[in-house]
Design brief:
137 residues, mainly beta, Immunoglobulin-like, four-stranded antiparallel beta sheet, 15% helix, 44% strand
């Protein structure tokens, strides 16, 4: 009888521990853009919790991303991964609520002059998702 009670106690403790860890996740979705609204693919987005847990995602070709994280307070950092054309983005205390979905749009500031594929300077207003540009060295 003691053995049965011990097994039941162990199973109950295991079920309780798993229930405590099963925290609902909130989906963060958004887009990385610059000041003119041009989309930016390949932006690395990192969320870090106060407990040291890290969540990372990279924006797709259309500048969008989706990431599921538990509710809490996060440090949000984002940077363009191909070069230093845009300044890094940072939010010190970003609150993620216990909801099904939240929007987090990332706006990176241009830190370099851009040129088109022929080396002609391109102004911020001329950049768009439809043109290929490269950062000038």
């Amino acid at each position: 009888m003691k053995f049965v009670c011990l097994v039941v106690a162990i199973i109950s403790a295991s079920v309780f521990a798993n229930a405590q860890q099963a925290q609902p996740l909130t989906e963060l979705a958004g887009t990385a853009i610059d000041q003119a609204g041009a989309i930016i693919p390949s932006v690395r987005i990192l969320l870090s919790s106060a407990k040291g847990k890290k969540y990372e995602v990279t924006t797709t070709d259309d500048g969008s991303f989706q990431l599921k994280v538990p509710a809490g307070t996060y440090l949000v950092e984002a940077e363009y991964t191909r070069n230093k054309a845009w300044e890094p983005f940072r939010i010190e205390k970003y609150e993620v609520a216990t909801t099904k979905r939240m929007t987090l749009d990332i706006c990176l500031r241009v830190s370099q002059r851009f040129t088109d594929t022929h080396g002609t300077p391109v102004t911020t207003e001329e950049r768009s998702a439809n043109r290929k540009h490269r950062a000038s060295p």
